[in-house]
Amino acid sequence: MTVADLLKHLSLADPSARVRLAINPFFPMAHKMGAVIVGMGHDGRPVVYLAEDAKAVQYGNLPRPVAEALTWMPPVEPPARGRRLRAVSDGDTTRVDTP
Question: pLDDT tens digit string along 56-65?
Fold first, then answer.
């Protein structure tokens, strides 16, 4: 991604929206954005580095829809509802019957 690509994505967002870093696909968390630094990459080309906040503020789990959009988690279908069992007591014993 280039700065132009980032600006294009950001231009679609609400300017008053907060910025969070989505980190670690295996344990997706949201972090507060810190410094933006322009430096040189290992290949000598300029790179913009987006840093986590120096206080390392973590805002908890990344919302599931965001993790799914990043393909860090598969979409989840609600579990199918099976037949419910009910306990039936006849005094001294209890058995489980299907309705």
Answer: 667 788 888 8
